[in-house]
Amino acid sequence: MPRPIPDSAIPQHTDDLANGKLMFNAGGCMSCHKPGPDLKDVDAGLPAGGTPLKTPIGTFYPPNLTPDRETGIGAWTDAQFVNAMQRGLAPGGFHLIPAFPYTSYASMKMTDVLDIRAYLATLTPVHAPQKAADIPAAFILRRGIGLWKWIGLDTAEFQLDPAQSESWNRGAYLVNGPGHCQECHTPRTLFMTRDTSKAFAGGPHPEGTGRVPSLRGLIGRGKFKDAADLASALEYGETMGYDGLSSGGMGDVQTNLSKLPESDLRAIAEYLVTLK
Ligand code: HEC
Ligand code: HEC
To answer: Is the pLDDT of residue 2 over 80?
Structure first.
């Protein structure tokens, strides 16, 4: 059964639009919610949705996140937005499929999620109705997700590690929360939940083709010289000759990361190089 976060649990909060934009970029929302082929006249920077997202169970069309009241999320309450982002529940209570990485967003600070909402509300509304997924028996699938969440959805908020520096913790938060790096870099169990004993060890690509490399021991295995080199790889990717970050969806991830402040990229690298 869906267990939504109640309205009363949404904190009083003053919106921070700059933080909302940062979290939107760290969260890679545009990788999936970019305007689809039917929306050629729409600004490619608006998350109007509709670009096909292929998964092993079928093709989904990530929905419109612009503030259009009819076809986007303009009429949603804050609680509805938080429930989609952190519990995988759509208004009306049906389960969203975890190709939308709410399994990672669930560990974000709720105020960061509310800032994303506030930032989205400043964008130009686009009228773009949702396209139905090309999957057999979508309804049965959504019922099954409830059971899956019961075993696989950890809703605990990210905890700081007091033994580590502030920037290491910032990096750990960005990687495991908004950045959802584990969604691809951690292999799955038989139940398609993340195999936490093999966190970041790489494995088959969740979208079905190829493999995702390990993020453990990046320095020891000679992938990068040091944390500073890794931070530049995340910032510049292929344009500076770092060619292991372009295919299998990583190119989009890197493009989104390149929009973060350098201090955040250094924090991400500081955290990643400690994965043994
Ligand atoms: C890896 C692809 C992917 C990424 C990254 C992603 N989404 Fe989504 N999102 C989806 C898919 C697919 C759905 C539809 C799921 C379904 O129909 O069950 C969705 C659904 C949603 C919904 C529910 C909308 C509705 O109309 O039901 C919201 C809200 C949302 N995403 C916000 C975001 C935000 C904000 C970000 C960035 C922080 C983000 N998404 C990043 C794929 C993604
Ligand atoms: C959509 C799946 C996906 C997500 C999400 C993802 N990655 Fe990747 N990543 C890949 C793939 C696939 C490659 C290999 C790309 C290639 O070889 O061109 C890769 C490669 C990398 C590499 C290079 C590793 C090496 O051995 O050279 C780094 C570093 C990296 N990713 C970091 C991250 C970080 C940090 C995040 C989160 C902010 C992240 N990735 C999120 C799929 C993903």
So the answer is: no
Is the Cα torsion angle 251, 153, 22, 91 positive or negative in sign?
positive
Atom of ligand 1 lying closest to residue 130 CA:
26
- 72-91 pLDDT tens trace: 999 999 999 999 999 999 99
Q: Tokens representing 228?
A: 């500073």
Alpha-carbon distance of 58 to 5, in angstroms, equals 29
Does residue 175 have its Cβ closer than 6 Å to ligand 2?
Answer: yes
What is the separation, in whole angstroms, between the first and last Cα of the chain? 38
Binding site membership of 141 for ligand 1 (Cβ less than 6 Å): no
Ligand 1 neighbourhood includes 181 CB (under 6 angstroms)? no
**Identity of residue 52:** P
How far from the centroid of its chain's Cα atoms is residue 228's Cα? 24
**Sequence-distant (≥ 6) Cβ neighbours of residue 3 within 8 angstroms:** 87
The whole-number average pLDDT for the span 194-199 is 92
Are 186 and 198 contacting, i.e. CB atoms less than 8 angstroms apart? Answer: yes
Structure tokens given for 214: 């390990």
- Kindly give the number of the ligand 2 atom that is closest to the alpha carbon of 249: 1
Residue 19 pLDDT: 98
Question: Is there an atom of ligand 1 within 6 Å of 218 CB?
Answer: no
pLDDT digits (tens, 9 = 90+) for 98-149: 889 999 999 999 999 999 999 999 999 999 999 988 877 666 677 788 887 8
Q: Report yes or no: 85 and 15 within 8 Å, Cβ to Cβ.
A: no
